[in-house]
């Protein structure tokens, strides 16, 4: 029997381990059945054809998967054409000049993960003979079973292995595993192709090996390699997770410089090479698409009063001769000049786009009010193209949430306690945030460094999205059931809730509080289980009340 301090008496370790894992596997199996069953029955009933694609976000990745799997190209011009029986079009798209010198459309998502999924699609097609265009329900479902459901079981397995090594009661371990399986929005997003689930799974695996390293239970090459690889893969899927990668790398370096260079760095290098390599294959350069949201380097400038000419669609002769000298192969004899259509942070800057009528070459011209300087920049805004959802001229046609929240204080409130709130939608995280602080003073669980890392990462990520993003990006992740940008932190929060759950679990009332928080969180996650790309239930209530959003 378990005593009050340790759930496993030292004299019966084998029996206790067997008992633990018999319960763990029940939780894991139940969660997998729930997720797997949902994947195999899900369908978007709002479209005329049969598909599991629910939003522009997942269609963007599916378009790349189809283009690579069927045509061996990252170009999605033909794939994303509107008017098809199945919706493949997406607003998460960029356009730039391809290797053939002409404009092409591409997914705006980082290329590594869709490339991996495309490899799975090719394998599925080779084994079953089914193509995604002809079997738009079953092929994506099979792929999601491989990319989401199977890794979801791996996520729960590594979480169980980690919490099984922490000295707490059995009830605390089972509760945390139940929260992971049924009480977070990770389960909601496990039925769609997205970057948040693989990022969270990577965090879990990297955290397991990191704790083994910090606890000095393993210090071999493979442990450091896997820690580096999965921490890097997290950053490849979630840009703010670069902070996670940096902290994990620093911990490993302090623990063993030799193994860090021999194991961690090769794992890191493997992911970095794959990330930038696939990006170069797709776009012909190393910089990812989401960094192309502004004009490029200034190429030249001219002086004079040319504003009227540009507004009339005429290219000043001084600029024509400068361009002819700088780029003699381009023909700007009859250019097409349009007013810049990208949201500006300053009313003092006027902007035009100059396009060659005989090719897809173009430049951006910027004029600072009050000066006679007209600067010609290399065109580098891949989101600025005719029909783009993100153009300034389409601001009024965007969904309200995509227009961004200009009030940072109100945005912070809704991210934490409001209609997209971490605590209001998933109140079980209250236990995790309290546990982070408790662990800083808890020596017995040996999770001080883990808690410190989690606190730093939580503050950094929330600050990044609330304080340092432009207004148009303060949109709660778009039309989505939760603040999805924080989902990759869930594995860290799950481990950190252990000390508070342990304390509350000593009494019946404390256990009731834990279960109540789990039930509310589970119901919130289940509300959008059919389609994670919908507003949270609390957002809908907020809209009915007319309160500020």
Automatic annotation (TrEMBL):
> Where, by residue number, does the polypeptide cross the bilayer?
21-40, 138-159, 171-191, 222-251, 263-282, 449-468, 488-505, 512-529
UniProt keyword annotation of Iron-sulfur present: no
Keywords from the UniProt entry: Membrane, Transmembrane, Transmembrane helix
Q: Where is the signal peptide?
A: none
UniProt protein name: Glycosyltransferase RgtA/B/C/D-like domain-containing protein
What is the source species? Mariniblastus fucicola
């Amino acid at each position: 029997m378990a005593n009050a301090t340790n759930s496993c008496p030292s004299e019966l370790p084998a029996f206790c381990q067997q008992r633990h894992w018999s319960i763990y596997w029940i939780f894991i199996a139940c969660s997998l059945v729930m997720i797997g069953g949902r994947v195999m029955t899900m369908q978007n009933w709002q479209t005329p054809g049969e598909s599991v694609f629910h939003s522009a976000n997942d269609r963007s990745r599916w378009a790349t998967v189809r283009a690579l799997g069927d045509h061996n190209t990252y170009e999605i011009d033909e794939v994303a054409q509107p008017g098809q029986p199945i919706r493949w079009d997406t607003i998460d798209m960029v356009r730039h000049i391809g290797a053939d010198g002409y404009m092409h459309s591409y997914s705006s998502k980082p290329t590594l993960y869709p490339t991996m999924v495309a490899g799975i699609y090719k394998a599925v097609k080779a084994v079953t003979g089914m193509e995604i265009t002809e079997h738009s329900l079953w092929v994506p479902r099979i792929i999601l079973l491989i990319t989401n459901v199977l890794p979801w079981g791996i996520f729960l397995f590594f979480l169980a292995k980690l919490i099984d090594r922490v000295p707490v009661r059995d009830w605390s371990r089972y509760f945390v595993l139940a929260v992971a399986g049924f009480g977070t929005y990770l389960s909601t997003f496990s039925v769609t192709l997205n970057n948040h689930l693989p990022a969270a799974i990577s965090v879990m695996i990297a955290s397991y090996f990191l704790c083994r390293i910090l606890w000095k239970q393993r210090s071999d090459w493979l442990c450091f390699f896997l820690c580096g690889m999965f921490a890097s893969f997290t950053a490849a899927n979630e840009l703010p997770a670069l902070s996670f990668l940096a902290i994990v790398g620093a911990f490993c370096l302090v623990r063993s410089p030799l193994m860090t260079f021999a194991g961690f760095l090769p794992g890191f290098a493997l992911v970095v090479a794959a990330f930038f390599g696939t990006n170069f294959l797709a776009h012909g350069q190393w910089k990812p698409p989401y960094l192309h949201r502004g004009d490029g380097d200034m190429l030249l400038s001219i002086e004079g009063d040319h504003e009227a000419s540009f507004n009339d669609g005429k290219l000043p002769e001084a600029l024509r001769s400068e361009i002819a000298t700088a780029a003699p192969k381009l023909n700007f004899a009859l250019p097409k000049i349009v007013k810049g259509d990208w949201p500006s942070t300053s009313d003092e800057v006027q902007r035009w786009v100059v396009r060659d009528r005989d090719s897809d070459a173009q430049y951006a011209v910027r004029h600072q009010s009050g000066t006679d300087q007209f600067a010609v920049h290399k065109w580098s805004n891949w989101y600025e193209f005719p029909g783009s959802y993100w153009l300034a001229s389409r601001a009024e046609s965007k969904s309200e949430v995509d227009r961004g929240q200009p009030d940072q204080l109100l945005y912070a409130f809704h991210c934490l306690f409001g209609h997209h709130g971490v605590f209001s939608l998933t109140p079980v995280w209250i236990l995790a945030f309290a546990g982070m602080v408790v662990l800083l003073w808890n020596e017995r669980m040996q999770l001080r460094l883990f808690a410190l890392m989690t606190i730093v990462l939580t503050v950094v990520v929330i600050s990044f999205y609330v304080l340092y993003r432009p207004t148009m990006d303060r949109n709660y992740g778009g039309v989505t059931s939760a603040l999805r940008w924080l989902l990759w932190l869930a594995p860290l929060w799950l481990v950190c809730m252990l000390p508070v759950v342990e304390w509350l679990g000593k009494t019946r009332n404390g256990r009731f509080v834990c279960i109540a928080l789990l039930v509310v969180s589970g119901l919130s996650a289940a509300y959008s289980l059919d389609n994670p790309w919908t507003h949270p239930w609390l957002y809908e209530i907020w809209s009915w009340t007319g309160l500020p959003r």
